[in-house]
């Protein structure tokens, strides 16, 4: 999966400093949040497994910039960026990853199952590809209920090998559902290069289902945002599309994975592709001062520190309350 | 009160649910144009339109997964899996997604979906179209499982399942589809988790569900001819199952035989027997017996299948053993 992007690089023509700075703020928020998680995980403060999206932030930020709060997304095990970009409150996010009762999921889901229905975030997912059919059903509901909303299914290139993707693409095309498939193609399927697992190009698969496919540079947040704006509009009006974002996985499959299977040169080559660096260069070209970037960085840092501190002060969840949520009471719907 | 077939009661429940709640949608393989492979959804497309009653591709995993997403986004999906054997293909959506969403999202959401699926042998349908796999679903926290035994419960439990905010598996025994029984003119939803006593007796209790209810009723009649009075408890719901009703029956009769068409090993009867052996120990005058299918795939040959499905004679034999 190393084909060149099919879309032109963002030319900045439609860009204003304020717009790009807004995207940059989101990129930085995700990056700094995950960097904070790296140290907290290493310190044993974050239990379980975490899968970081470092290097892939531009996909989350760019796609979400084209969505409204009522649009829905189904995410993956590598979903922190999707969650934060969709607008999950940072306090509830950190509290969930620290397994606190104050967490968005009251400490029962953790990193791989974080969700916030109030902002249309239908959940991260511990099963590769499972979010595809959830997003399909959400798109079905949007269409059936006559809403002007779209659903977005995020998935990695590893999920290209899952049969569910094929079932969902067929149904979405057949029923012309307002469903955007967003592939975060980072070239890796867990510990193996996807080239050793996937025998086809997503573009060809999309063509087989008659679904429009666009491949872009997923490390250029403006390219993603521009493409998403166009494509989401088309999906809202007329049916599914595939947006393939070529991006980079910097950390391992999971945090703590030393990536011994990976050529060190491969990792060294990622520097220039860093979406934050790409965005910062664009901002410099637009004449945005370093001081503005510094102000954003300070703001992001303080938001994250506040969220971490609040999460640390949280409480262990209560077993009886958890037990009571195995089933919904009859009056729940 | 009219006499209707089981299949008609299912159809009526779907029609009434579609009428009562615009969020209800019915989908599955061949449920719309063809009206269902067994005819359970016949006529619904004409009445409610193809926006609400629609056919899907042969894609069980995506059908079930779409139901989860639709249920999280405001619909009340009812989908059909043509044979329970094919629920092997829906397991991620049902077990990892639908069952857990409420819990793992901290109570933010409910997943009000219904999976209808027929189980059971007797039609010579062979090993991949006849299994009773309800124990799989009853084993998963977050799912409910019901198994109606006649037209009135087929109606009442399906309506209840559609109204329930939780994911519910409705298991219909396909050998019962043609069965006739009474259905009130204005039938009501039943309460999930409540058993009913179909026959009272002082000597032993048959606890059963689905098509095996009728096997137990036949066995009870045979035993009555010998002066042995068996109580027959129709569970109707397996998850949750009516522990209180079973314990009350055992407290009256002091002998228990659990009967189902599902394979005996690790079947629903194992759970019921274990619970009664613990909490009903003081009430029991004999070991608990289970009658279920042997540990064998469901065979095709009538000669084999006839021996495979638990018979009234097998139930009578079990009764004699607990009375000995």
From TrEMBL, chain A:
Function according to Swiss-Prot or TrEMBL: The pyruvate dehydrogenase complex catalyzes the overall conversion of pyruvate to acetyl-CoA and CO(2). It contains multiple copies of three enzymatic components: pyruvate dehydrogenase (E1), dihydrolipoamide acetyltransferase (E2) and lipoamide dehydrogenase (E3).
Keyword flag Oxidoreductase: yes
Name of protein: Thiamine pyrophosphate-dependent dehydrogenase E1 component subunit alpha
Single GO MF descriptor: pyruvate dehydrogenase (acetyl-transferring) activity
Gene3D superfamilies the record matches: 3.40.50.970
GO BP annotation list: pyruvate decarboxylation to acetyl-CoA
Start and end residues of each Dehydrogenase E1 component domain: 27-314
Cofactor(s), by name: thiamine diphosphate
Keyword terms of this UniProt record: Oxidoreductase, Thiamine pyrophosphate
Catalytic activity: N(6)-[(R)-lipoyl]-L-lysyl-[protein] + pyruvate + H(+) = N(6)-[(R)-S(8)-acetyldihydrolipoyl]-L-lysyl-[protein] + CO2
InterPro entries: DH_E1, PDH_E1_Alpha_Subunit, THDP-binding
Matching CDD domains: TPP_E1_PDC_ADC_BCADC
The organism's place on the tree of life at top rank: Bacteria
TrEMBL record, chain B:
Pfam families for the chain: Transket_pyr, Transketolase_C
Signal peptide span: none
Keywords recorded for this protein, A-Z: Oxidoreductase, Thiamine pyrophosphate
The UniProt record lists the keyword Oxidoreductase: yes
Entry superkingdom: Bacteria
SUPFAM superfamilies xrefs: Thiamin diphosphate-binding fold (THDP-binding), TK C-terminal domain-like
Domain Transketolase-like pyrimidine-binding: 4-179
InterPro entries associated with the record: THDP-binding, Transketo_C/PFOR_II, Transketolase-like_Pyr-bd, Transketolase_C
Required co-factors: thiamine diphosphate
Gene Ontology molecular functions: oxidoreductase activity
NCBIfam families in the cross-refs: PRK09212.1
Protein name: Alpha-ketoacid dehydrogenase subunit beta
Organism: Xanthobacter dioxanivorans
Organism placement in taxonomy: Bacteria, Pseudomonadati, Pseudomonadota, Alphaproteobacteria, Hyphomicrobiales
């Amino acid at each position: 999966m190393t084909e060149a992007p099919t879309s032109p690089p963002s030319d900045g023509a439609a860009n204003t400093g304020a717009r790009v700075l807004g995207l940059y703020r989101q990129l930085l928020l995700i990056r700094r949040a995950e960097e904070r998680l790296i140290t907290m995980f290493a310190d044993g403060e974050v239990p379980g497994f975490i899968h970081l999206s470092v290097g892939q932030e531009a996909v989350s930020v760019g796609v979400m910039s084209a969505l409204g709060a009522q649009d829905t997304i189904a995410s993956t095990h590598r979903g922190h960026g999707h969650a934060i970009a969709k607008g999950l409150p940072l306090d509830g996010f950190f509290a969930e990853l620290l397994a606190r009762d104050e967490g968005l999921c009251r400490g029962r889901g953790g990193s791989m199952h974080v969700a916030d229905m109030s902002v249309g975030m239908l959940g991260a997912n511990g099963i590769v590809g499972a979010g595809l059919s959830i997003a399909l059903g959400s798109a079905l509901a949007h269409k059936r209920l006559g809403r002007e909303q779209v659903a977005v299914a995020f998935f990695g290139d590893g999920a290209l090998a899952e049969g569910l993707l094929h079932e969902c693409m067929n149904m979405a095309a057949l029923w012309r559902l307002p469903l955007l498939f967003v592939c975060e193609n980072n070239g890796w399927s867990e510990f193996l290069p996807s080239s050793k697992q996937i025998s086809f190009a997503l573009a060809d698969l999309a063509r087989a289902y008659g679904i429009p496919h666009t491949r872009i540079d997923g490390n250029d947040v403006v390219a993603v945002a521009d493409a998403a704006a166009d494509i989401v509009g088309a999906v809202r009006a007329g049916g599914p599309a595939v947006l393939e974002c070529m991006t980079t996985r910097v950390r391992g499959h999971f945090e703590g994975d030393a990536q011994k299977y990976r050529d060190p040169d491969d990792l060294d080559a990622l520097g220039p592709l860093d979406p934050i660096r790409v965005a910062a260069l664009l901002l410099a070209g637009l004449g945005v001062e370093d001081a503005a970037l510094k102000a954003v960085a300070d703001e992001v840092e303080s938001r994250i520190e506040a969220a971490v501190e609040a999460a640390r002060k949280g409480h262990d969840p209560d077993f009886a309350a958890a037990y009571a949520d195995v089933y919904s009471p009859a009056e729940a719907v | 009160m009219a006499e209707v077939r089981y299949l008609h009661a299912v159809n009526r429940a779907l029609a009434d649910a579609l009428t009562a709640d615009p969020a209800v949608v019915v989908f599955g393989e061949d449920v719309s144009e063809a009206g269902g492979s067994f005819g359970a959804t016949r006529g619904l497309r004409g009445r409610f339109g193809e926006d609400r009653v629609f056919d899907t591709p042969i894609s069980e995993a995506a059908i079930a997964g779409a139901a989860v997403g639709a249920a999280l986004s405001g619909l009340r999906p009812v989908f059909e899996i043509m044979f329970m054997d094919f629920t092997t293909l829906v397991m991620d959506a049902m077990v990892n997604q639908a069952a857990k969403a409420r819990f793992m999202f901290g109570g933010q959401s409910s997943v009000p979906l219904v999976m209808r699926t027929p189980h059971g042998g007797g039609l010579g349908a062979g090993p991949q179209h006849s299994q009773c796999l309800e124990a799989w679903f009853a084993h998963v926290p977050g799912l409910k499982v019901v198994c109606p035994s006649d037209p009135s419960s087929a109606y009442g439990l399906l309506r209840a399942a559609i109204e329930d905010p939780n994911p519910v598996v409705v298991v219909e025994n396909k050998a019962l589809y043609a069965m006739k029984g009474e259905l009130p003119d204005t039938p009501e939803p039943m309460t999930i988790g409540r058993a009913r006593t179909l026959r009272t007796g002082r000597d032993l209790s048959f606890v059963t569900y689905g098509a095996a209810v009728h096997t137990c009723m036949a066995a009870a009649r045979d035993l009555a001819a010998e002066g042995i009075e068996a109580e027959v408890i129709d569970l109707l719901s397996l998850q949750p199952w009516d522990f209180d009703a079973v314990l009350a029956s055992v407290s009256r009769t002091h002998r228990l035989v659990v009967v189902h068409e599902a394979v005996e090993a690790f079947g629903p009867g194992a759970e019921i027997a274990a619970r009664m052996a613990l909490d009903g120990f003081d009430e029991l005058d004999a070991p608990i017996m289970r009658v279920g299918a042997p540990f064998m795939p469901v065979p095709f040959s009538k000669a084999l299948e006839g021996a495979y499905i638990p018979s009234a004679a097998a139930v009578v034999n079990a009764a004699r053993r607990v009375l000995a």
